[in-house]
Design brief:
The protein is an alpha+beta fold and about 90 residues long. It is built from 2 helices and 8 strands, in the order E-E-E-H-H-E-E-E-E-E. A hairpin with a 5-residue loop joins strand 6 and strand 7.
Length: about 90
Amino acid sequence: MSDPTIIDCKQQAVNIGDIIRVTTLSKQFIKSFPEDERILIESMIGNFFKIIAIDEEGQACIMREWHDERGQLQTHVIALDSEEMEKV
């Protein structure tokens, strides 16, 4: 059995290591984060990320890193639906 093809919003195949632009994120998804992190999640829209993994549901995963107010590294790994990304 072959792995399912993961596609972006323009029906282009995407794979681990590809660079994508986040085109949108659902409001419900953004609201699932603590209020102080929402701006960081929203700021991902329009920016470029490398696909670091494919999750068990067949979604492309990207990672956002930043330093909090204490200087500690924070990360979020999120899985994207096809309409949320565009391969560049």
